[in-house]
Design goal:
- There is one protein chain.
- The protein is mostly beta strands.
- The protein has a single domain, classed as Porin (Beta Barrel), CATH 2.40.160.
- It is built from one helix and 20 strands.
- 30% of the residues are buried.
- The chain has an 18-stranded antiparallel barrel.
Length: 403
């Protein structure tokens, strides 16, 4: 199959953190080569001045110990390529007394499969599962504060078919959900949907897209179940051998059980990956659209959560031994069309803002051992949700061994 037209499903899994994130992946990227399974083991110490859990929801200051194990594997064959990444970490907070242990876990698993049925047709499966208490701001689900462990999953299976030398379709089903473990489960969500993308190649560097998706969301708590239909037009373009971008503009028609009726919300997404030179690489995204997360507030609910997400990530290689990374995430939630479900009366709009700048470094001692450190700052503010306002500083230093 000509990869220029239909390889959108063949997302490269360089590391677990990149797969299925809001940062764009290049659909024109080749399948790559097989890589033997590689493990990484990390041990470190950190300091957190505002750690929250179900036992200390107001936040506590604590030193913590961290241990993490990661694995990546790529099996690239002419007909089938599959890629898997896994990550498991445990943090021991010394000032926390959760069941006498103060230990919290975070885990992620990725499995991507690209099977070429014939020269024109392929099956693509992209699956991401995460569990833990720490959010990942580059993914589409982001709690601005997670006092309990939660399971987030995204399962995406599609068939791509090239109809002509220029026209292809990409049709699939997707299931996404979040499930909180313990505490208040009002924000549990399950979304299942179908979608179809038309892809038309103008030339070897530019592809036009027309996209349509239908999604049903089962909501817990006071929120009503929702139906979202989104249509958009897009452009994917290789700007150079070092740069790739895509963009979409559209609208979402939204219906919420118990709500006032149909809503029409704008949808915009854009992303850019670029290697400025052999030392510096940049990745950025912006997305604005309606979401179903965080809309339950006790006996109050909001029909619409219009979310803006912006992310920027930079990596700079100072020398063969030293590399630096930095970035920032910004999220804004605008809640509107709210109501008290008991009294059936309207409530005021509300909003939340979260910003998360970070910096880090990696120093290679040798080919298999490195020293790494990071600093994260998070600030959350709101109108109508003052209990969720906080500032947080987190510093970590560790050693990683690859084997």
């Amino acid at each position: 199959m000509t990869k220029t037209y239909i390889a959108a499903g063949s997302i490269a899994l360089a590391t677990i953190a990149n797969a299925q994130s809001l940062f764009v992946e290049d659909p024109n990227e080749g399948q790559g080569e097989s890589l033997p399974i590689q493990y990484s083991l990390t041990a470190g110490l950190g300091y957190d001045d505002y750690f929250t859990s179900s036992e200390n929801s107001e936040g506590t200051t604590s030193i913590y110990a961290n241990a993490a194990l990661g694995a990546n594997y790529v099996n690239a064959k002419p007909q089938t390529t599959w890629k898997v990444g896994a990550y498991l970490s445990a943090n021991k907070y010394f000032e926390d007394e959760r069941s006498g242990s103060g230990v919290y876990y975070n885990a992620r698993l990725n499995l991507d499969v690209n099977h070429r049925i014939n020269d024109r047709t392929r099956f693509v499966s992209q699956n991401y599962i995460s569990y833990g208490i720490e959010p990942d701001y580059s993914f589409s689900f982001t709690p601005d504060r997670a006092p309990v462990e939660h399971l987030f999953y995204s399962l995406d299976n599609a068939i791509g078919h090239r109809w002509t030398s220029r026209l292809a379709t990409y049709t699939g089903v997707r299931v996404r959900g979040v499930d909180y473990h313990g505490g208040n489960r009002d924000d549990d969500r399950l979304t299942y949907g179908i979608y179809n993308n038309f892809r038309y190649s103008l030339n070897t560097t530019t592809v036009l897209t027309a996209n349509l998706s239908y999604n049903e969301t089962d909501a817990s708590g006071s929120a009503g179940d929702a139906t979202d239909i989104t249509g958009s037009l897009g452009l994917e373009r290789r700007l150079s051998s070092r740069s790739y971008m895509n963009a979409k503009v559209g609208v979402t028609r939204r219906d919420v059980d118990g709500g006032r009726g149909s809503y029409y919300n704008p949808y915009v997404s854009a992303a850019l990956n670029t290697n400025v030179n052999s030392q510096l690489s940049l990745r950025t995204f912006v997305r604005y659209g309606v979401e179903n997360y965080g809309t339950s507030q006790g006996i109050n609910t909001y029909d619409t959560n219009q979310a803006l997400r912006i992310g920027l990530s930079a990596n700079y290689t100072v020398s063969p031994k030293l590399s630096l990374n930095a970035g920032v995430n910004y999220i804004r939630y605008d809640y509107s069309d709210g109501r008290n479900v008991v009294a059936n009366t309207a409530i005021s709009d509300a909003d939340r803002d979260l910003i998360n700048p970070y910096v880090g470094f990696t120093y290679r001692v040798n080919d298999r051992t490195s020293i790494n450190g990071s600093y994260n700052y998070t600030d959350s503010s709101s109108s109508g949700f003052s209990a969720n306002d906080f500032s947080r500083n987190r510093v970590q230093l560790g050693v990683t061994r690859i084997f």
